[in-house]
């Protein structure tokens, strides 16, 4: 078996992540984790990620169906949605910052309240326990009751039962006990992130293991040990001075990893896009998420969606909805759109899929050059 080359790794990364659309539960199970983001431009990141992997997916389906799915809103390397089975790898989560006795008493009061009244909106809880305001992580002021609920959720005392108009409805949590050792849990978590983002450059694998400190801060030592072992024993190849890793049992050079002619606009946090180092190695240009960049300094746009076609990231598109109509403006690394009828057809087909996903009328203003 020949060692994979960079082209093989690129093809493998795309084909294994952009699998044939399936059901919503199966897609989340296969992804292992779906990163969440509140910005809608034109839809939330979790919806933009799932629309490419779930049959007939519409924006908001995850939120609408959440309460009936075996998934949870929780933390891994960042905040998002993951199969409930993975939570037992991280809970009981031991937060780095210990609560004061007063805060612990407030948390006990909330638990007793929810035990009595069941799943509740934060305003219902605040009506019974108004704690005023507190200083948030950015130095500003935020609602202290909301801050407490966030902390209880992070520590596994509460779970998100559902959302109403985007607001979390909280319920008491009962996470199953996992009898595996800390070492075994850490190993499972590291393998989980590798399976989601593979193939990974060594530096990116290290970054993701560091970010696991968000979901499992109490497993930091064990995760470092697993990472050291993985770098010596996991399947890998060195290309142009960079070592790449992928899961056991997979061959990035295999013919099974095939690309198609479908053009796709990817979310900024899509697994294909997430690792910016890998993105630059694969496609030779730097993608940047510019939603928090001052408008005058943006090069790609507020919420630029990378444009993937035939294995290449040709550029990006900014998609918006104005007065009930979808508008799309594309930009290209080369400075102009490909002069190819197949590209034009693929671009229009993707816009039609986006319009259907957003439940918008057929009229679309679109510019591809």
Write up this protein:
This protein is of the alpha+beta class and 369 residues long. The protein has 12 helices and 15 strands. The chain has helices at residues 6-17, 24-31, 45-51, 61-65, 101-117, 122-128, 144-154, 182-197, 202-215, 220-233, 276-283, 341-357, and strands at 34-35, 71-75, 79-83, 133-135, 141-143, 158-164, 167-172, 200-201, 236-239, 242-245, 264-265, 305-309, 312-322, 325-332, 364-367. Strands 11-12-13-14-15 form a 5-stranded mixed β-sheet, with helices on one face. It has a 3-stranded antiparallel β-sheet with strand order 1-3-2. Helix 8 crosses helix 9, helix 8 crosses helix 10 (220-233) and helix 9 (202-215) runs antiparallel to helix 10. The two termini are 43 Å apart.
Quick overview:
The protein has 369 residues and is an alpha+beta fold.
- DSSP summary: helix tally: 12
Mean pLDDT, all residues: 94
Biggest sheet: strands, sense, closure?
5 strands, mixed
Instruction: Trace the largest sheet across and list its strands.
Output: 11-12-13-14-15
Element-by-element helix/strand order = HHEHHEEHHEEHEEHEHHEEEHEEEHE
What is the tally of beta strands?
15
Give the % helix: 25-40%
> Hey, roughly how much beta strand do the residues contain?
15-25%
Distance between the termini: 43 Å
- Taking all Cα atoms into account, the compactness measure Rg is 22 Å
| Class from secondary-structure proportions | alpha+beta
Report low-confidence residues grouped into runs of 5 or more: none
Global shape = globular
